[in-house]
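As a representative case, the lines below give one protein's residues and fold tokens.
***
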Amino acid sequence: MQPKIDETSLGYQFEYEEFKLSIAISHVHLHKDGRITAEVLIETYAPGYSPLLHQSQINLLSTRSKQALCKEMETRYQAPWTEIIEQTCAIILDRVRRGEPVEYISTSLEGIKPLEYLISPIIPLNQPTAIFGLPGTTKSYLALLCGILASLPWWDNPLGLTVPEEPYRTLYLDYESSRETVTRRLHKLQQGLELPDLVLPYRRCALPLAEDIDTIRKMVEETKARFIIVDSLGGACGGDIYAPEPALRFFSALRSLNCTSLVIAHTSKEDSREKSILGTILWNAYFRQIWEAKVSREAGEDEISSGLFHRKSNEDKLLPPIGFRFTFINEPDNEAVGVEREDVKGVEGFLEHLSLSQKVLEVLKEQPASLPELAESLAAKKDTLSIVLNRLKKKGQICKLPDKRWGLVAAKGELL
């Protein structure tokens, strides 16, 4: 009696062909007290029977639970239920405990792909990325924009972003707003960017991601989604955002989806110059790529300058800030949001967020300057500036002039 076993998005499918039985095992859960529970759906394709025989939850380690299921099934269908149930439970327990198989890695890169991006340079492929910031920093618009870029895909976009060669279906998991709100935002972007109509799978979520993961995994399979947007982390984590356990459960669930993901998060309340994701340090540790969103806008204006500042990359260098200008059009017959690329260094409100190296280059664009002049202009210590200047010199970006001032160097090595 050897069943045919297939893995599904929710668990396992057992086929006992000689008895014309199909047993689906789903929502397998390992509890803190050691119990391992699962939902069992037993069906038959034997003639003369209704397909559904029984559906319940059992404890895979409980003799009483398994005996009760066997006793119930004996009243419904003729089969060696004790052997079938024991074998099915034993196989499931073995697979749950065994987990992923051991693989051997070596110094050879044969068969290993270089780092790839879904949307370059913002979202690495098959890794979790976070965009965090204060409320009103266009995070949700940026997430939807990424969903549009990946879904179409928009190859010739004017935003300077590289997208995949084929469409990546995007599933939007909304823990904050509503279907109507997200639909309006999507419509405004589509109108403002003059794009064709498009459809994104959307789900309004109430349960934490880890508690809802079996259903979400099924939705990923049904929609054929390969890119997941989670908006936002606070609602999806399901617990104290400062505690380690909800974070670990969230990432375990997210990892099980085997998709590229973008998670919107809020900023910490720390007064430090560089903020971090609100909550436990594990949020910053487990995300492979992290961007901080900041905006600059004038009161009463319909335009917002939005900047993405690179705070973490596990496999690539930290990149210069990426800027976008959002233009909001709110007319009776025309609601739209236009987006165009913008140089962050040209936005006055963002200058304070640039690195010291970037600030030095911006000052030297105007005219050469000495170390004391740079220190005074940037309110920086001379020792720190000396290190930065020598680093930029080694990169060939600046050089020291005969009068001991520093100046920019053009691409061909000529002084600007």
Summary: The mean pLDDT is 90.
